[in-house]
Amino acid sequence: MAERSTFDMGRTIVQALALLLVLSFAVPYVYLVMTSLKPAAHVQQIPPSFLPNRISVENYLTVINTQSMPRAFLSSVAVAVLTTILSLALSVPAAYVAAQYRRPITVFFLLFALITRMVPAVSLGVPLFQLLKSLGLLDTTFGLVLAHTSAAVPLVLLLLAAFFDGLPKEMEEAARMDGCSRFQAFLYIVVPVMKSGIAISALFAFITSWNEFLYALLLTSQNSKTAPIVIAEFNSVYGLSWGPMTAAAVLYSLPVVLVTLVLQKQIIGGLTFGAVKG
Amino acid sequence: MAKISLKDINKVYGDKFHAIRDLTFHIEDGEFMVFVGPSGCGKSTALRMIAGLEKITSGELRIGDEIVNDVDPKDRDIAMVFQSYALYPHKTVRENIAFPLQMAGIPRDERARRVTNAARVLELTDHLDRKPGQLSGGQRQRVAMGRAIVRQPKAFLMDEPLSNLDAKLRVQMRAEIASLQRRLGVTTIYVTHDQVEAMTMGDRVAVLKAGVLQQVDTPQILYARPRNIFVAAFIGSPSMNLYEATLDGELLVLGEQTLKVPSSVFAARPAIRESANRPVIVGIRPEDIDDASVTTKPEFEEIDAPVSLVEALGAETMVHLKIDAPWVDAGDPDAVAEIGDEHTAVGRFSPATSVRPGDTARLAISADSLHFFDPETRVSLW
Amino acid sequence: MKKLLCSGALSLLAATALHAESINVLVEGGGLMLQKAMAEKFTEETGIEVNFTEVPYQGVFDRLSAEIASGASSFDVATIDVVWMANFAPHVEDLTDLFTEEVTADLPPALLADARFGDRFIGMPTWANAEVVFYRKDLFDNPDEQSAFAAEHGYPLTPPATWGQWRDMAKFFTRDTDGDGKADLYGTATIGMFSEEWMAHVLQAGSPGVILDDEGSVILDNDAHAAALEFYRAPLCEDGSVPDNALEIGWGEAQNLFYQGQTAMMKFWAHAHKLTPEDSIVEGKVGIAPMLEGSAGIAGIPGPWYNVIPSTAENKDGARQFIAFAIANNAMGIEAPLGLAATNSAYERYMGQMGYEHFGPLLETLGGPATKGRPLHADYQELVDEAVMPAFQAALECDGDVAELLAEAAETAREILN
């Protein structure tokens, strides 16, 4: 009995610490949400107030009624979704081969992918600009998708390679013995088995594109400008748009929250991958 | 169902590692063939080449009458059971078993009928809707079997399918697989490192060492007439005791002691008849050594040896003995490490024995069952 | 049917003709607002389409730098902050021919000075801004306050014009109105996140320039810099007439405090006069006065923006037409929400009208005897970030000797320049 109660005590402490940790992550976001609900004139106060003294949706209305924000939002969705699809289409087979058929060349391939992430994105901006300009893809959704894919693929590739590393090679072999071609084995067995890892990678690819600022700034003008740029525009030198900016940021975060909730099961499955091997 | 034949099969990795060397043998239709050998002997590689999962460097592989060297695994019509089972974790048991049928384009009704059958045979009927993660080790093993038998392929390939099970379950499954194979009559190649599995399951057993086939024979012949000292030591448990000795006429000089070799031995092994001072390697199986004071052996030769360890197992007593002659290493890398620096001989004594460590035992050796090998070639002398 | 096809083809031709000439303009949010109406009129009159690309403030610099570096700009015109002029000077077209006598005569000298790089004009002013004094008319015009102030300080309560008045009035209005023992109305707020306001005081104190003199020598450690910094931190460190979290206060925060009625005065960019939120308690009660004066008289730091033509522009001719048209129609920006322009004539046209009370003080500040632009130097931003800000913010910690801090800053600045 005594033992039982000390056990519960320990558990309570752990849970309290976990809660504290979660809160420390959540506070800035909650503050963002609170700020977005304050009337424009009360956004900044001395001393700062956490809770709005009056709930107001005026910031949200301001954002929704701008011409640029809804458009940029749609553009962001298109770019992020296409980037995710393209990144996965390129990375899933590549990561699988690199992880399962390890050769010096595949190791080099993965390391090289890593190197591209070590170069500051800024230094790739100008070459990307020239490249897209010469292809006539500046300020197009597809052009930005290509740029974002170039940023997402190395990340997704390494992530997936780590997941595929944990996949027994027999999985593909068993499928081939069961009558699959290599590609069928990959498609019918490997991909479904790895869906948690792929889901996490998809989320990362999506977020990479969703929050990307620099390439979007350099490579778009009017047609395919994404929301991060428009959100930053609220912070004009002459502007006083802290309220609309936070409202836009909250709205903009919702799809990621939504995607994360939808993929929750896969993500937790992916995070504990390896513990459930067999 | 089909026969399988290998002719001069070689497997070389890169330019360096020669994993399989000139492997040649023939497996009859419906035969249960076991590949056995220590780890790294190439038995799994051989199996995987037959499966089509490894490329054949040179040689000719036939399944049925067709040369299949370059045929994709899916077109070889053989089923394989993996050591890890390689069940599809996202599919239910039913879907796992049905998957090969689905890939073969078998209609849904037929598929369901055959899955039900296989499940009944393997006693998996109650678990069909579970995922592999919810099954015990033995049940997973059965699912892996189910995936193989449901298809009625030309051959089953099994790569150490029981090595992940506990000892008790292993013995039970061993019998079940053997009887299932006999019932289905499908040509089967079974890879194991466990010579007991090999001996109990196989119609014939192929012993491999370092990529080279040592001997293919029925278990009885492997036991009775091992071709060389490796096979002699590998087959049988505990291992055959091997010592350097000298054969002089009908006397075997083993260290300081001598045994008289019966004439029946020379009749069977003309190669050693009438030899004078000929160095040999003599092999004595533990079951041919007993306590002279209590033995029921009708005929035996006697020598003395100090006892270092006694293991009473009930039905028999294993006695470790110090034989005063140079010990011979048979070359099995998996052989159990010896006690201390000493290489002891093992005798399988009758339980009536009263020897104790430190005693000098009087041994009864069944001299008509002695094995003789050439010290140079290490091949059996017949 | 055939006719229909024909007319379709014709309108297509017409459309292509219309689209045949266009210019792309890179702007920040403010640049778009201030030039949109003018650009529409420009298209109407010339047929040249104007495509604005709006990016966030820092984006203007990043985007233009990247495009120039790539050698293939998408932009024919960029509207840039004066602080970037030195960086882009080698990469923009010479606009000297657009600076006719008529144009130069109509621009405040400080704006002209910043438009010039070496012996050529490289940017055309689009609008100028400067910090002026904002005060609460409901407080300053209140007879009770006036008599109380006069009794305390021996001179009448008028909009502050000098350093001494500023400090007196800030102290006077700092009070605890709800009796909870904590001040809830402050005289003003000290901005700790940006140093431009202090720079204006440096000029008021008679310095020949901010950070650098005209020869490019570091003068961060001269007496005027020190005196201005002492004055700048006095309300915070001596008088207690500002909120004590100065280092967390930037433009937006200072502006909000004023609109929320928590400060009685602020020095702020003039355009804000038109932007007082409708729900602010000070709406309709905001008075504007010129920037403070020091021993050298009134001085402000101009915040002008310039139209430049990147050397990589494709339609330079169209760009020139646009810039010429923009300066000729400079007054049109005043109708935009920010309500700013560059030329004297544009401001004068609206002076005295309702809602444009800030123009008089703004013009007076821009034309102030000591008003001068920040140094046009490619390393300006680095000088501010690495040399000025550490000393500036250390001074606002209130311990530390101002002259010593500035001497250190001057040392750092010299290292940067060498």
Strand order of the largest sheet of chain C: 2-1-3-12-6
Task: Please provide the count of β strands of chain B.
Answer: 20
- In helices, the fraction of residues of chain B equals 10-25%
Helix content of chain C: 40-55%
**Beta-strand content of chain B:** 25-35%
Name the helix and strand elements of chain B from N-terminus to C-terminus, one letter apiece: EEEHEEEHHHEHEHEEHHEEEHEEEEEEE
Order of helices and strands of chain C: HEHEHEHHHEEEEHHHHHHEEEEEHHHHH
> What's the Cα radius of gyration of chain C?
24 Å
Output the structural class of chain C: alpha+beta
Class of secondary structure makeup of chain B: alpha+beta
**Count of DSSP helices of chain C?**
17
**Oligomeric state of the chains in view:** heterotrimer
Mean pLDDT of chain C: 90
Q: Major beta sheet of chain C, specifics?
A: 5 strands, mixed
- Low-pLDDT segments of chain B: none
What's the arrangement of strands in the largest beta sheet of chain B? 6-7-8-3-9-10
**What does the main sheet of chain B amount to?**
6 strands, mixed
- Overall mean pLDDT score of chain B? 91
Most extensive chain-chain interface: A-C, 33 and 42 residues
From the alpha carbons, calculate the radius of gyration of chain B and give it in angstroms. Answer: 24 Å
Topology of helices and strands:
The complex is a heterotrimer of chains A (278), B (382) and C (418).
Chain A: H1 2-36, H2 58-65, H3 68-100, H4 104-118, H5 121-135, H6 141-165, H7 170-177, H8 182-193, H9 195-210, H10 214-219, H11 227-233, H12 242-262, H13 264-271
Chain B: E1 4-13, E2 17-27, E3 32-36, H1 43-51, E4 58-63, E5 66-67, E6 78-81, H2 93-103, H3 108-121, H4 137-149, E7 155-159, H5 167-184, E8 187-192, H6 195-201, E9 204-209, E10 212-217, H7 219-224, H8 229-234, E11 241-248, E12 251-254, E13 257-260, H9 263-268, E14 278-284, E15 289-291, E16 301-312, E17 317-321, E18 345-349, E19 360-365, E20 371-373
Parallel strand pairs in B: 3-8, 3-9, 6-7, 7-8
Antiparallel strand pairs in B: 1-2, 1-4, 4-5, 9-10, 11-12, 11-14, 12-13, 14-20, 15-19, 16-17, 16-19, 17-18
Chain C: H1 2-20, E1 22-27, H2 29-46, E2 49-54, H3 57-70, E3 77-81, H4 85-88, H5 101-105, H6 109-115, E4 116-117, E5 120-121, E6 124-127, E7 131-136, H7 137-140, H8 143-153, H9 163-173, H10 196-204, H11 223-239, H12 251-259, E8 265-269, E9 286-289, E10 293-294, E11 297-298, E12 305-308, H13 316-328, H14 344-350, H15 359-366, H16 380-395, H17 402-417
Parallel strand pairs in C: 1-2, 1-3
Antiparallel strand pairs in C: 3-12, 4-5, 6-12, 7-8, 7-9, 10-11
